[in-house]
Structures are given as structure tokens and as C-alpha cells.
Amino acid sequence: MSEIQAMTHRRQSVPSRRDSHRRMTQSSRLPIATPARRNKPRLKLTRWIGLTLFGLWILIAIVGPWLAPYPMGAFVSDEIYGGASVAHWLGTDYMGRDMLSRILTGARYTVGLAVVAALLSSLVGAGFGMLAVLLPHWLEEGIRRIFDTLISIPSKMMALVMVSAFGASIPLLILAAVLSYAPGAFRIAHSLATNLATLEYVQVAKTRGEGRFYIAAVEILPNMIQSVLTDMGMRFVFIVLLLSGMSFLGLGVQPPAADLGSLVRENIGGLSDGALAVIAPALAIGTLTIGANLLIDSLSNSRDTQKE
Asked: Which InterPro entries does this chain map to (predicted)?
């Protein structure tokens, strides 16, 4: 009897296959928290914040001058560095002009010049970066030396030299920004294109006898376009800071026109009093660059998450 009771106890203690299957099924239903899922809500939040800030300033650059309650250079108040009021939401500047109107109008210069310069610098840098890989080695080396020479010159120093030599103008500011930031775009595009040029489909296109421009535009560019666009967004932020710094030094956009950097420089005398005339354009530059940075970081992080 003792042996029979021991065998019965052993059978009861050993789980059946049905019980094991039920436990595995219940455990498989439990949600598994992966790092990507934990990071996804945060990435969405930063993306929407960046998109909202950046999109707001793009919209202001397009329709801002038509929304301005006063002309940009109109003297509308006798109060200098006036505070916020119903008539002047962002106060008045050092000459009694409405700051809201000047910011709505000046944002077009800051955003517009930065967008044009970022597009041109990315086009020049990425274009030469892709073509250099497909050119003969001696010509590729020559292009690389030229861009290495340009990238060794600090951007603000190059802009200061050009403006001092030829005078301040909008085309010259765009040219200075392109020459300053196209070399960085070239390096990134060249390294990406060098890796892509060794892949089989590019070699097949060369064997078919396709031209260099076809290979660069059809075979290489589609596989590096996301990285190029991300880099262009970073160039936009750098160019905004460069143009704002030039305007702060008085070598950027010249009167009667004004960009956000010019508005800070004009009203720097009210900084000790905490005047809105100097705080508002500084906050405008900050929100523009922060919004662009958040949008770029969230897009690049989401792309890396999808790859994983």
C-alpha cells in the first residue's frame, strides 16, 4: 500500500500536459514591454512638439506680413520699449514701432534665407559627394581636397571676410552660408555613397553601361535620401544661427529690412530693463531652432527604431 500511495502522490505532483499548455498560453498573452515600445510615446511627443514649433514659423514666414497689424517701419507709439498692451501685444521697440509686426515680417527673412541656403548647400554637397565616387580617382581626390579646404575655414570667419570684401547683401549671405556648410554635406554624402557604390545593384548598373548621373540619381540617391534630408535639417539650424549672428553684428540683413537677429541687435539697449522688444525676437530664434532640432531628432530616432 505504501508503494501505491507513493506512486499516486507522484502523479498528482507532476503537472499534466494540459496544465502546462494552459500556463504557457496564459503567459504568452502577457504584454512584453520592449525598449522600442517604451520609447515610442516619447518619440511621438517630441515629434509633435517639433513639428508644431517648426510648422508655426514656416507658416509665419509665408503669411506673416499679411497678418501684421502695422507696417514694419511705422512709428505707432510715443512710448519706447513699451510693454505688452491691447494695441501692441509684444510691446514697442526703441523707436516706438510695433514689435509683433516687425517679428511677423522679419521671420520671412530668417526662415526664407535659411531654407534657401540649406537646400543649396545640401544639393551642392550631396551632388558632388555622389558624383565624386563615380569619377576617376584623381578627380575624386581633387574634389575632396577642395571641400576639405573649405571645411577648415570657420563659417563665421568666412562670412565676415566675404561681407567685408563685397558688402552685405542677401545673395552674398546665401553664398557665404552655402560655402560654409556644403563641405559638411559633401562629407556625409560621400561616405554614404562610397558604401553604396560597392553594392551589387550599382555594379550591375555600371555593367549595363549606365551613365554617372543615372547611377547617382536612380541607384544611389534613393538609398541615402533619408540621411541627406536629416543632414539638411541640421544645416538649416546652423544657418539660422549663422545669419542671426551676422545680423546681430550688423553685417546681415540691412535696414529698412530686418530679420530676427537684427531685431535683437536693435533693441539690445532694453535688455537691462527686460524689454519685450529684445526678449521676443530672441525667443523666436530659440523656438525656431528648438523645434527644428526636436523634429530632426525624432525622425532620425524613429528611423533607427524601424531598422532594429
From this structure: BP-dependent_transpt_permease, MetI-like, MetI-like_sf
| Whole-number Å distance between alpha carbons of 217 and 227 | 15
Distance CA 125, CA 102 (A): 34
Q: What is the pLDDT of residues 170-218, one digit of tens each?
A: 999 999 999 999 999 999 999 999 998 888 888 888 888 888 888 888 8
DSSP characters for 138-185? HHHHHHHHHHHHHHTS-HHHHHHHHHHHH---HHHHHHHHHHHHHHHH
In angstroms, what is the C-alpha Rg of the chain? 29
CA dist., res. 33 & res. 38, Å (int):
7
Q: Residue 229 corresponds to which amino acid?
A: L
Q: What are phi and psi of 6, to 5 degrees?
A: -65, -40
Residue 287 pLDDT: 95
This prediction has a pTM of 0.80
- Backbone CA torsion sign across 171, 176, 181, 186: positive
